[in-house]
Amino acid sequence: EAVTTSLQAGAVGFAVVAVFMIAVYLVPGAASALALALYVGLMVILLAAFEVTLTLPGIAGIILSIGMAVDANVIIFTRIKEEIGGGRSVEAAIKAGFEKALSAIIDGNVTTLIAALVLFWRGSGTVKGFATTLAMGIVLSMFTALFVTRFILRALYNLGLKNPKLYGVKRDRKPFNFVGIRKFTFAIPVVIFAIGIGAMVMGVSSGRGAFNYSMEFMGGTSTNVTFNEDMSLDQISEQVVPLVEEVTGDGDVQTQKVEGGNEVIIRTRTLSAEEREQLNQLLADHFGVDENQITAESISGVISSEMRTDAILAVAIATVCMLVYIWFRFKNIRFAASAVLALVHDVAVVTVCYAVFRWSVGSNFIACMLTIVGYSINATIVIFDRIREHLKTAGQKKDLAELVNESITQTFTRSINTSLTTFIMVFVLYLMGVSSIREFALPLMVGIVCGAFSSVCITGPLWYMMTAGGRKKQAEGGR
């Protein structure tokens, strides 16, 4: 059911994203919709060819790679609009758009690919599944964005669609003072972290723990019940699960039918002897179940401490590798440090939400964090690429704050549109998915919003503060 609803949600989400791209980017948007359709088809073929087992983290990897495929197209089309707005012909604008977008696309995708390879190398179980689908998706998304989209776009142009109005025109906007409001934007995550720490302290002091760990982490109780009739999955969800939740006070309940009989397995958090008796009594009263036909046993957590350690270590190594790559490509440690700090911010904010809202921490948590790590860095790279471009042309002449504000403003539409298209995909997944999918989609939506906020409001001002401080020291040293 989870797989079926995810596929349906993916189809609906893709259709909405395609309509959005066509409405916003016109002819280039139509080209991207065709290229993305080919991308999805090739992805399905590869999954079947390599017999990749689809898990929830694996689906997360595909969602992330679709988001990055859309992102690459948005970067290119934004550049094309800028070139047309600057007075170039459509043909010249298409050529220049792809050329100028190339560095941002390569850096963003290679950075995430490095993370995927490290996660595959050091991770285990579900982490490997995420890394596999993500790596496949990144390679495919770069191919479709840089070659397929270009081919389709040029074909549409050669068919007679040459009017600049069909490609859109982007005029220069007055730069917004993102650097000037940095004290306010930096204060927001500080307040959020304070609330999160307070929630964790209250959870520990009340005996509930800092986080609501699922049975995948903590283990639990498996209860086998033989009903008097063959109950459907819907009946079990509607009639049995609420009774179980009444006893446990917890929404983390898993049910499974045993084929060829009326037996149902109910997995919950660890139940005390009194809670087991209460559950048995409720089942007997509501369904006429023979209490002698109910058995219970303890189960261990399927996510071992070793798997958790592997996941944390893999993310740490991937972060260091991304830092080194950004440092190498941008030839400035301040770019890398700002990007990694923003990444830590995004992960920390979502972790705070898990503590405050008591979301269940299980395999979904690992999948969500891995997705945020892969997604967050990409938006930051695009802004840094524009800052790097302005530094080459303006050098030391232009005011640093003005340069940063101009770079963020010029890439702002791209940041919003990319985040919006990915958010749409995940939101449809949340609306149409089963409970396990919604548990993954909700925090991921928070992560997408956090990623957009940190990329626009934190990374640039952070880099500015580090660089301005460095220039000031150089100036003082020269006097």
Report on the architecture of this protein:
The protein is mainly alpha-helical and 479 residues long. It has 13 helices and six strands. The protein has helices at residues 2-49, 56-85, 90-122, 126-158, 182-205, 215-218, 233-248, 273-287, 305-330, 333-356, 363-394, 400-432, 435-478; strands at residues 212-213, 220-226, 254-257, 263-268, 294-299, 360-361. The strands form two sheets. It has a four-stranded antiparallel β-sheet with strand order 3-4-2-5. It has a two-stranded parallel ribbon with strand order 1-6. Strand 3 and strand 4 form a beta hairpin. The radius of gyration is 25 Å and the shape is globular. The protein starts with a helix and ends with a helix. The model has no long low-confidence stretch (mean pLDDT 85).
Short description:
The protein is mainly alpha-helical and 479 residues long.
Low-confidence stretches: none
Largest sheet: 4 strands, antiparallel
* Apparent shape: globular
N-to-C SSE series? HHHHHEHEHEEHEHHEHHH
Fraction of residues in β-strands:
5-15%
Structural class, from secondary structure content? mainly alpha
Numbering strands along the chain, what is their spatial order in the largest sheet? 3-4-2-5
Q: How many helical elements?
A: 13
Specify Rg, calculated over alpha carbons.
Answer: 25 Å
Q: What is the residue-mean pLDDT, rounded to a whole number?
A: 85
What's the β-strand tally? 6
Which bin fits the share of residues in helices? over 70%
Distance between the termini: 70 Å
